[in-house]
Predict the 3D structure of the following.
Amino acid sequence: MKRVLRPLLSMRLANTLLGILALLCGLSSLLPQGRELPFYAENYPRAYTLIYRTHFYDVFNSWYFALLLGLLCLSMLVCTANMFRRALRNGRQTAEEAAALPKTEPLEPGQLEELRRWAASKHCKEEQIGQSYVFRKNRLGYWGLFVLHLSILLVVAFGVFALVLPKVSDLDCRVGESVELDDGTQIAVDSFRLYDESGKLDYASRIRITLPDGRESPAQEIKVNYPMSFGSVKVFQWEYGVSGAVIASPQAQIIAYVDEKIEDEETARAIGEELLKLENVESVKFISRREAYEQLIQRDPSLTEMADETMLRHRFVLGLKDTERLEETLAEAEKIPGVAKAKGNIYRTLDIFQQRIDLSEPAFLSEDGLSGLMFLGLYEGHPEGKEEESTAFYRIQVVSDGLEMPAVDILPGESVSVGDWDYVFQDPWVTGLRVKQMPFPYANSLLEAAMVLMLVGLFLCFFLQPVLVCADETGYTVAGPRPEKTRLELRRRLRKEAEEK
Amino acid sequence: MKTLFFASMILYALALLIQLIGILGKKDSFKKAAWASYLLGFGAHLVYFVWRGLVAQRLPLASQFEFACGLALCIPVVLLLARNRMDLNWIAVTGMAATALIQGYASLQRMEINELMPALRSFWFTFHIGAAALSYSIFLVAACVAARYVLQHKKGEAEDSLRMRQLEYLSFRLTALGYLLLTAVIVIGAVWAEAAWSAYWTWDPKEVWALITWIIYTVYFHQRLSRERSGLWLSWYVILAVPAFLFTFAGVNKLIPGLHSYG
Ligand code: HEM
């Protein structure tokens, strides 16, 4: 075993490995790293084979880089164990043992007092053993090298985990909507802003996170450099963009398609109020499914196919409590994609009432092809050039009975009514979120603690060097692992004192 | 205010010239004049730097110009702080030359004050970049001390004389302080990168070169602490390590595109 470990303990090996690591890092900057292979084939056709064979296009993910890092860690591990033993031994050295050390530097008569004064000025602990004095301080410093090497090992280990384990995905989400991750975590974007109060570009989103177990975070603003963590999810403000959307809704009130034939308005209202618990019954228009179908076909026989589809998709909205009919209705309604449960037992499909149209290219939005909206484009800025209120605005043209009006600009939130439809223009901001899912909530803290430990180790090594001096009337010796500073200081002090005399 | 910057540059260069003449002509009064010019230059430089910080409302270390200007400013600060530990005349020539050269480099960069881009507006900005400027300036002063060691050795001074030991020890201590700061720069940079880009380490060229610099100094400490090498060897090492961090600071931005290439 020793024969295997000894070479790993050698500082020369560590330095050689470190040198190779530096060299590899240096070489890696000769070539852009981590691009797709065709990039290299195109830009470095003559060296391509070499680049490919040596994995030089992605040095830091190559097998030889991993091997090098592994060897370095192994060497450090063995060495750290060794340092632990040494630190323990040095720390345990008793004053008696120290006092017995041979005195290597001579002292002139009377200089012992000067040495004691020096030790007192340095706040060393003084112990007298027989004729000898032992001065000590900074025993913690013996642990410096051990702490330093151990922390570097931990940084590498946790660092590799931190690079490999988290799952990172980039998502776009529109204001007012939410996105769902594979594991069921939901991120809702409540608002987005581009500028801060002083008008500086400082994009930020206000988001909420709901974990798969149902826990919901309070809303929090995230911006570049200020991500939000909740559970083991961390969400970063990554980028932003615009993408228009308009909600088109028929001006007629909510239309409720029912299976029964509605005899008169009264019955309809009664159903609406009592059984369906609709809040604003006046605005509900009840139409039987059959009726709706017939009306559609009557208007335009070519719509038969569409009507069939409509009938299929927009099943009834309503059912009656405690009846077989309801059970049936619900069971069927649940099969339909896009059906959302409203309140109580009321189901409805959303699409028939409101339609959301994503606007990325110029489009004509109309039901009959004659009256509607022509969407021309989406621009960043403000239609009246108000820079401080800069946002994004839509440019549209109203078409009524086939006639085109002049183009107008419209801000998000504003609405236009044409024909039987209302068009409400949506906030156009799409916020780009980066979502990092960590294997467990405190994964980052471990790495950060190891990094702080590294700084502590360095501090102990360099700035808390242990002092161990033993002296008697005839001479003194500076012992311990790094005696140099004390030796120089003492020599200068004693020489100065001799000169003054 | 730009005048103050250029005045400081000229005063540093003047200080170097007077110091050289003083050495060649063996005139002590010249050396005093050189120091006066150097300190005057420092005063002007400091006022300019503070003014720039007040105008920009941040630590003015965000562009190549600002960083070089800040780095040059740190050199006299380090010299003045370390004056208890050494005779400033030991490293007057090299120290003044380093300050004037870096200030000269700064003068070649674009000087306008820019608003920070959102990625740079962070709590960590001051600590990360401030520590980097301080660390590099300390490495530079350490190299100045090491250069003096090499010079004295050339003149025939024995390596185990008290002064030579002090010189070598001082260059080690300074390097150690610079190294501690460089480590802090890397650690803070990693924590910042995680907050801004979601990953602690992205093998961005600036990161890679900071790591190379860090490794180069790590090998130095291994060599020195194991007492395998002579003072002369170690001094040459500290001098030859200078291009590594200078490349990290300037070369990477100019030659290799990456996330850190802010200008
Ligand atoms: C990636 C970084 C590092 C690696 C791979 C590494 C590896 C090693 C190895 C293998 C040894 C030999 C073991 C022994 O002699 O007990 C060693 C010793 C040593 N290392 Fe490091 N080390 C690293 C960083 C550092 C740093 C940052 C410092 C201090 C600034 C440092 C200071 C020392 C010292 C002083 C020794 C000698 C201990 C002695 O001789 O008493 N090392 N290191």
